[in-house]
């Protein structure tokens, strides 16, 4: 019985460590300053669900939006928002700040 408990604990610990590693490896950061995203193009792994953290460094609200991968999130000034994207097929996907679309158009590249 003790061996079974020890084996189960070892397996659960391995699974938790793998899950923690997965989360760290699939988190990407964007910042928005002067109504422009940095980086201007963001590459993510294709066919993988990713966590996207968007920081709004502007003094006005922003609305992260993409018709290509169906995402929308208002981000107050000086705050950040988390979105989960994908999994996406390989390709190039446009996103922007809905409030300043002309200057904020940016691309997500899934490879």
UniProtKB/TrEMBL annotation:
<dbReference type="Pfam" id="PF13473">
    <property type="entry name" value="Cupredoxin_1"/>
</dbReference>
<dbReference type="InterPro" id="IPR028096">
    <property type="entry name" value="EfeO_Cupredoxin"/>
</dbReference>
<keyword id="KW-0732">Signal</keyword>
<feature type="signal peptide">
    <location>
        <begin position="1"/>
        <end position="23"/>
    </location>
</feature>
<dbReference type="InterPro" id="IPR008972">
    <property type="entry name" value="Cupredoxin"/>
</dbReference>
<feature type="domain" description="EfeO-type cupredoxin-like">
    <location>
        <begin position="12"/>
        <end position="109"/>
    </location>
</feature>
<protein>
    <submittedName>
        <fullName>Cupredoxin domain-containing protein</fullName>
    </submittedName>
</protein>
